[in-house]
Amino acid sequence: NGLPDNHVFCVLVDGNRIWAGTENGLALYESGKWKVFRPADGLGHRAVLSLALDKSTGDVWVGTMGGLSRISAGRIDTFTQLNSGLANDIVYGVGVQGDFVWAATAAGASRFNTRTSQWSIFNERNTPMYEIWTYSVSPGEDKVYYAVWGGGLLEYDVRTERWKDYNDPDGETELVLFKDQGLIHEITTSVSYIDKIVWVATYFGASRYDGRSWHNFLTKDSGLPSNFLNQIKGVDGNRAWFSTDKGLAYYDGTNWAVYRPALDNGKPEMLVRDADGNTKRVEVNSAPAHNYILGVDFQGDDIWVATAKGLSHGMRQK
Prior knowledge:
Elements: E1 8-14, E2 17-22, E3 25-30, E4 33-37, E5 48-53, E6 60-64, E7 67-72, E8 75-79, E9 91-97, E10 100-105, E11 108-113, E12 119-122, E13 134-139, E14 143-148, E15 152-157, E16 162-166, E17 188-194, E18 197-202, E19 205-209, E20 214-217, E21 229-234, E22 240-244, E23 247-251, E24 256-261, E25 268-273, E26 279-282, E27 293-299, E28 302-307, E29 310-314
Antiparallel strand pairs: 1-2, 2-3, 3-4, 5-6, 6-7, 7-8, 9-10, 10-11, 11-12, 13-14, 14-15, 15-16, 17-18, 18-19, 19-20, 21-22, 22-23, 23-24, 24-25, 25-26, 27-28, 28-29
């Protein structure tokens, strides 16, 4: 269709424009046509891992395997370790908070002030971060959250400028001894902060934190199709989408739905689970392109889904 690669790491909705970060370039879908950006065009690297939109300027920030790129009015500028205060050139996550752009890199967190062009680096020297492999970032007006691979969840308070970490009470064990006493696991892959609620994805389940108490989600007691999560995206404080290796899951605060090609025959499948744990199949004629879901973004009632074998557009049926 014009997509430069079927392995789609991330997707970003920008009004009527859809950006897709793939293993072989950044793709822009607009007016039914595709345009591809690669290093020859100024992009930091052909592998695009993360995307963020600055709604105030329209700039698109692109996290790549070779730096952080900014697309502004058709111009691409790339920031790297050599020419800026970027902590590392591998940028797994990026987020915009007012004048600040936050980056999650393989060697700590970086913050860029777009107004003053000043950089700040946060790592094991000035935060509670005992692992510096930051994997995802979700900034809000009052707090900024980082998913730290092997290091749990890191919180930055904008008012006090202080950091706080949250870890699994069980340590790095896969065994869940205390279900809702804290973060489900240290290996966090994604974080989404919305309506004062923090949603956290790990390779061993998901967690929700309201600032006082935790609630954890596992396949054995929820509608999650797998405990292996690549991304979590909150709709609000009660609803979220879960990108797993066995399909796309949606939670509305009570019920669950899973969308995927069936694991046994590959036919489109939708599973619904109610609060009592009853699961039923719903007849559908379409599903995401692949079971391995890497990320989602919303376009009104529609959803765009990045998978390991293509980009999918989910259109809500009234």
